[in-house]
Design goal:
One of its GO terms (biological process) is 'de novo' pyrimidine nucleobase biosynthetic process. This protein is of the alpha/beta class. About 40% of the residues lie in helices and about 15% in strands. It contains twelve helices and eight strands. Helix 3 packs across helix 12 and helix 6 runs parallel beside helix 7. Bound molecules: the ligand O=c1ccn([C@@H]2O[C@H](COP(=O)(O)O)[C@@H](O)[C@H]2O)c(=O)[nH]1.
Length: about 280
């Protein structure tokens, strides 16, 4: 999929101001139209879409019904779907979240989901194993794109085998250990990281020159392009050896061109991503 369709991930973030600009109602029907329009515009141009589930949750069960249709349409169009849900909890509960989003045939089936390791990467172990068995993926938040997160994510772990590493670095190492244990000959691990394109990974004690030299390779979901200020041409410098696994994720910067100019904006950004050799 990476080779054929490239690494651009188009966010499906139906902000209220975008619904209005697109001439859509602020309702579950508006979300459905918005999501289906993004899916249509991305098809054949980008390989991946990422619905931001928060916007659908605002409309309760009707929002979830709209989301189910958008997920099904994206998967039917052969787009990979990353459900941006950022779930985290004790192990048994986070596993139930994984069952909801990663079980084949489930109403909310996606190809991957985002999860939070605040309760420890170990709390995600069963969910990660479930994803691996189902041929699905998880992206664990590590160094996120929002500036408020730096204090927590750069904090130094005090005990255990990751002592002395930043929280973000420790999460990367734990995820890599899981992928190594599961290794099945696939070039990429089933679990990846969220590493924002707005941050300098050196500030987290991560050396991008070597961080990506791993087998299996680490998938990286990289939000922060466009509206948050990161530029596609900077991706090779920002991610270094991790760049082979980077998914360039952008929402508002592309969605602002919609609905009429969205397909063209996606086409142009997908070309930029290819030219940047990410
Ligand atoms: O570190 C993170 C993790 C997730 N996000 C999500 O990505 C999109 C970004 O939207 P833009 O409009 O391109 O800024 C949004 O859904 C966030 O919740 C992130 O930005 N940073």
């Amino acid at each position: 999929m990476f080779a054929e369709q490239g690494r651009l991930c188009v966010g499906i973030d139906p902000h209220a101001h975008l619904l209005e600009a697109w001439g859509l109602p602020a309702s579950a029907d508006g979300l459905r139209s918005f999501g289906l329009t993004v899916v249509e515009a991305a098809t054949g141009q980008a390989g991946i879409v990422k619905p931001q589930v928060a916007f659908f949750e605002r409309f309760g069960s009707a929002g979830y019904r709209a989301l189910e249709e958008v997920l099904a349409a994206a998967r039917a169009a052969d787009l990979l779907v990353i459900a941006d849900v950022k779930r985290g909890d004790i192990g048994t509960s986070v596993t139930a979240y994984a069952e909801a989003w990663l079980t084949p045939g489930s109403p909310l089936e996606a190809d991957a989901m985002t999860v939070a390791a605040y309760q420890g990467v170990g709390s995600l172990a069963d969910a990660m194993a479930l994803g691996e068995r189902a041929g699905k993926g998880l992206f664990v938040l590590a160094a996120t794109s929002n500036p408020e997160a730096a204090d927590v994510q750069q904090a130094i772990v005090r005990s255990g085998r990751r002592a002395g590493q930043s929280v973000a670095r420790a999460i990367i190492e734990d995820v890599h250990s899981f992928n190594q244990e599961q290794q099945d000959g696939a070039p990429f691990g089933s679990v990846g990281l969220v590493l924002g394109a707005t941050v300098e990974l050196a500030d987290y004690g991560i050396d991008v020159a070597t961080a990506g030299e791993r087998t299996p390779a680490l998938p990286v979901l990289a939000p922060g392009f466009g509206h948050q200020g990161a530029r596609v041409e900077d991706a090779p410098r920002l991610f270094g050896s991790l760049a082979t696994g980077v998914i360039v994720s952008e929402s508002r910067g592309l969605l602002g061109a919609g609905p009429d100019g969205l397909a063209e904006a996606i086409r142009r950004r997908a070309d930029e991503v290819r030219s940047a050799h990410v």
